[in-house]
Amino acid sequence: AQRVTQPEKLLSVFKGAPVELKCNYSYSGSPELFWYVQYSRQRLQLLLRHISRESIKGFTADLNKGETSFHLKKPFAQEEDSAMYYCALSGPASGTYKYIFGTGTRLKVLA
Amino acid sequence: EAQVTQNPRYLITVTGKKLTVTCSQNMNHEYMSWYRQDPGLGLRQIYYSMNVEVTDKGDVPEGYKVSRKEKRNFPLILESPSPNQTSLYFCASSLVNPGLAGLNYEQYFGPGTRLTVT
Description:
heterodimer, A: mainly beta, 6-stranded mixed sheet, 0% helix, globular, B: mainly beta, 7-stranded mixed sheet
């Protein structure tokens, strides 16, 4: 079954500390992986997509197919990074093209 | 301005009274989708559409209907709402199916519709 697991509901770090938001997935085949972010009172928006291998707002994410993980990392957290982060996957499976989100991790960056 | 709009933004209704939440996008996107967001459960896909007249079930389709008669619109219909459908609903669109191998177009989300069924 397709599944995205984000084990942490809440992650609190101090400003300037490294951040790692965990994401593990279950998928038979090669999915497309994404990270979405939802700032307070704003719409959900794309942060990263694995295929483009880009860094957005200092965040990076590496797809590890062996560990089926797509953890989101940032070396130095900023207060403006406080938000809800969702890992998601999509891809053809059993003839469907569902989009699966994890349950989300709330990141709080403390001053 | 490129955007996804939803109406209404807030709705309080009673059990069994049919309702429709509209979703419209002005980006000529092929792929459209509906999600519900519940505390502790994240976003769960209700239905999606890969193009006009092509719809398919997501993970939680029970109690919902959709239609895609025009490319820009993708209404969500609750024929007989129940209290367990109280939730925050999001519509989203993408240029093409975001799951196509080698392509990952982002989804653009609407502002959300907060529905309360009493």
